[in-house]
Specification:
There is one protein chain. The chain has 296 residues and is mostly helical. The chain is built from 13 helices and three strands, in the order H-H-H-H-H-H-H-E-E-E-H-H-H-H-H-H. A three-stranded antiparallel sheet has the order 1-2-3, with no helix packed on it. The longest helix has 21 residues, at 20-40. It is globular and about 65 Å long.
């Protein structure tokens, strides 16, 4: 069974070309499934897995505290795996055929206000090389709404300096173009001109944002920077890099941007994914109404 997984993972990487993060997530989900089937159910033949076994597996991971979104991802990973097995004629029956996706209860994304965002962006300052770089990274993150994985993978060729646009390689290796805005543009321009050459340490790299060792940032490294500046700004709520993406979208919609435009800038393939931010906007309108309207 694990040999089948190895072949499937190779298929996903080579033929499907899925994003590394998705590949790793599916890998964890499917390895957990195979361990359940082999170790707990003592089943060694993939063809012996019945719908009842699948449901028992899903019940177990739900009882372990997995969210509805994580369960749906696990089920999607299983569907892809079984679709591959059918195509390769390794199995003749799909036990997932009549199992529906779990109900996803909508969880509103965590956002911060424009004033709170302004306070965080003001924290790094511009007195040191690291502060100039950090300011540029935070400004780009908020100005474009890109994911932290997309931020740390930006290269010198990602920015069109003539027109002020950023080319981003998103999930599923899908490319999109997002405007930067003057403030972020100026901050990144200063970083590239004054700081990046010093951080390179005579190395040859096209990575845009470099750490103090002249290497590409890790997600964890940048996560610590964001958390630190949020705490430094006096925010009590938890703020992470993805909070910038959520706030980017909700602030655009609050300002009157149309949903389709925000969808394109976020790189969502389905507009229903973007629509969650309209709920955030409605919540914000309700708060304002209750706070300021004399009859509320």
């Amino acid at each position: 069974m694990r040999e089948l997984l190895t072949k499937y993972f190779n298929y996903l990487l080579v033929e499907r070309g899925i994003a590394q993060n998705t590949w790793e997530s599916y890998g964890r989900d499917l390895q957990r499934f195979v361990s359940f089937v082999q170790d707990k159910k003592k089943i060694s033949d993939i063809q012996m897995v019945t719908p009842e076994v699948i449901i028992e597996y899903l019940t177990q991971i739900r009882e372990e505290g997995l969210s509805a979104n994580s369960m749906n991802r696990s089920l999607a990973a299983l569907r892809g795996f079984y679709k591959y097995l059918l195509r390769e004629k390794i199995i003749t029956y799909n036990p997932l055929a009549n199992i529906e996706l779990a109900k996803v209860w909508m969880k509103l994304p965590d956002t911060i206000s424009k004033d709170e965002m302004k306070a965080i962006l003001a924290q790094p300052g511009s007195l040191t090389n690291s502060s100039i770089r950090n300011t540029a990274m935070l400004e780009i993150l908020y100005a474009t709404g890109i994911r932290v994985s997309e931020l740390i993978n930006l290269t010198m060729n990602s920015i069109n300096w003539q027109v002020g646009f950023l080319t981003v390689m998103g999930k599923g290796s899908k490319e999109r173009i997002v405007p930067i805005g003057k403030i972020a543009y100026d901050c990144v321009r200063r970083y590239v001109d004054e700081v990046r050459p010093q951080l390179m340490r005579k190395k040859s790299t096209d990575v845009l944002f470099l750490n103090r060792f002249g290497r590409k940032f890790t997600r964890q490294g940048f996560w610590k920077i964001v958390v630190g500046y949020a705490r430094q700004a006096g925010l009590k709520k938890k703020v992470y890099p993805h909070t910038f993406r959520h706030s980017f979208a909700s602030h655009l919609l609050e300002g009157g941007a149309d949903l389709r435009t925000v969808q394109v800038m976020l790189g969502h393939s389905d507009i229903s994914t973007t629509q969650i931010y309209t709920h955030v906007t409605r919540e914000r309108l309700r708060e304002i109404h209750q706070k300021y309207h004399p009859r509320s």
